[in-house]
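seq as requested:
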Amino acid sequence: MVQCTENADRLEIGPVASGVGKHDKFAVATVSSDNLVQAMIGGKMKDVGMPRFLGELMATLMSSVGPKGVNFARYSIDYHILRNYLHVLNIWGEGASNMLPEYSHSIIDHYLKTDEGFRRIAEAIKTKR
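C-alpha cells:
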C-alpha cells in the first residue's frame, strides 16, 4: 500500500523523525496529576485549575525541558493510553485488558514493569474495586 501511494505521488517519504528528551517520566507525571485519575484513586477533584500565569509558566518550562519532536508524540500517545487504561481498569476491573486495543498492551506493560508510581496508581484502582 505504501509503495502504491508513493508511485501515485500521493506520499513522500522523508528522513526518519528524531526527538530529544525522555518521554516516560513526563507521561507518568501527567497521568499522576490528572484530575480524573486522582478521583479514581480517591483523591479530591479540583474545582479550579491553576492560575493562568502559572499555567503559562509551566507550559514554557515544559517546552524548554520536556520532550521534543517525535518524543513529544510518544509522550502524548503514552499519556492517553495510560489514562484510558486506568479509566477502563476503574470501570471493568481485571477485565480491562480485554477492552483495550492490542497495540496498547506493550506500552501499558512497559510502564507497569518500569515505573513504580504508575504501578501504585493501578494497584490503588484495583484494590478500590
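The two ends are 45 Å apart (CA to CA).
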